[in-house]
Amino acid sequence: MSPVVPAASSATPSGPSIRVLIVDDQSMIRAGFAALLDAQEDISVTGTASDGDGIVDVVHSTTPDVVLMDIRMPKVNGLEATRQILAMSGTPPRILMLTTFDADEYVFDALRAGASGFLLKDATPEELVQAVRVVASGDALLSPKITRTLISDYATRPSASPKQSGLVSELTEREREVMTAVARGRSNTEIAAELYLAEQTVKTHVSRILTKLALRDRTQMVVYAYECGLVRAGE
After folding, report:
1. Is residue 59 a contact partner of residue 92, using CB atoms and an 8 Å limit?
2. CB-side neighbour CA atoms (13 Å) of 35
3. Burial label, 229 (beta-carbon count in 10 A; 0-12, 13-18, 19+)
4. Which residues are registered as beta bridge partners of 46?
5. Is 97 helix (H, G, I), strand (E, B) or coil?
6. What separation in angstroms does the CA of 57 have from each of 31, 83, 94?
7. Which tens digit of pLDDT belongs to each residue from 3-48?
8. Calpha distance 118→110 (Å, rounded)
9. Contact (Cβ atoms closer than 8 angstroms) between residue 44 and residue 18
């Protein structure tokens, strides 16, 4: 099992904090991210691990809300660790993948496996903190810089399965327009402007799409849109 280092939080006790587990094979990365996140009033780092070996036990012992997960690690990489975490019973933590490259071949597979988003390791401190908050809130982190490149490079042009085609056909025309925009990396604000809708209306459409297609978040919606052929890579 990967060694787990508990972390004492510096967060104030005035309210519930976002509990974070950091999994990365580079000790400097773990220490730096832990120091930054633990300095936030609303975030506490519950532990760190050097790879995904024994990750289910690690998650049980540290009970995080969000796991910062490096993709490339020895023994058990971040992709397999993500699959194991999301297969846990109950409500598993949300996974924020970390990568050094904006064109990592594992990233699309990580999204397909159910990760809630991904972030470059050279992101600014502000971007890292905000990413943890966004993912913890139940939303997905879809950085346009990475998402548009990855979808174009790695999303194939699969034929829609009968089940996928049937479910998508149950969406209204407006819901398909919103789903297409989400798959192209648009934010709710951008979608509202493009479709001349109120931002709250866009959020309602997104919620209904997730419910109809039995998807967890926007990240899964993006993957589904490409897999079912609603959006094509490179379009």
Report:
1. yes
2. 6
3. middle
4. none
5. strand
6. 21, 14, 16
7. 555 554 444 444 568 999 999 999 999 999 999 999 999 999 999 9
8. 9
9. yes
DSSP state of 144: H
Token pair in block for residue 24: 């990365």
Length in residues, the chain: 235
Secondary structure of 24-84 in HEC code, one letter for each residue: CCCHHHHHHHHHHHHCCCCEEEEEEECCCCCHHHHHHHHCCCEEEEECCCCCCCHHHHHHH
How do residues 120-175 score in pLDDT, each as one tens digit?
A: 888 899 989 998 998 888 777 766 555 555 555 545 545 555 556 667 888 999 99
Joined together, the tokens standing for residue 155 give 């999303």
Residue written as token pair 């966004």: 134
Q: Which residue has the tokens 């967890």?
A: 216
169: tokens are 């056909």
Please give the structure tokens belonging to residue 139. 């939303």
